[in-house]
Fold this protein.
Amino acid sequence: MSILKVARLGNPILRHPAAPIPREQIESFEIQRLIADMVVTMREYDGVGLAAVQVHESKQIAVLEVSENARYPSKPRVPLTVLINPTLTPLSAEMEDDWEGCLSVLELRGKVPRYKNIQVSAHNATGDRVDFTASGFHARVIQHEWDHLQGKVYLD
Ligand code: NI
C-alpha cells in the first residue's frame, strides 16, 4: 500500500465530476488497490474522509472514518466506510452550520451549511448495495465527500 499525493485546490481534477464505477469492476485489483491506498492516505494525513478525485483518480469512490482525531476532536466516531457511486437524499429540509476543513485546502476552515439527516445509497468495497441513514457530523462528512465526486469543494 502507498500513501498517495493529495491534489490541492487549483488542480483541475478537483473541478470535474468523477466517473461512476461499473459494478463488475469494483472487485478488480486496480480498484481494490486504489481503495486500500486511499485508506492509508486518509489516515496518514488525519483526514476523516477522502474522495478519489483528491488522489488524482476521477472515480466515484469515497472513504471515511472518524476515530480519535486531532483535527476533529470530540466528534462522534464513524467506522471505516467505503462508498462507491453514492447517491444522497435529504430526509428533511433541516440544515445546520458547522466548521469543515479539507485535505485539498490547506490551512483553511469554513462554516458550511449541510443537511442534518440524509439517506445514503451506494456500493461498498465488495460491490454490495448498502443503504443507510446518517445524521449530524456523519452526514456532514458524507456530503463533503459527495461534493468532491461532483467536482465541488466546500468553499463553493
Ligand atoms: Ni475535502
About this structure: The chain has a mean pLDDT of 95. Residues 65 and 80 are 4 Å apart (CA to CA). The two ends are 32 Å apart (CA to CA). The helical segments are 29-44, 136-149.
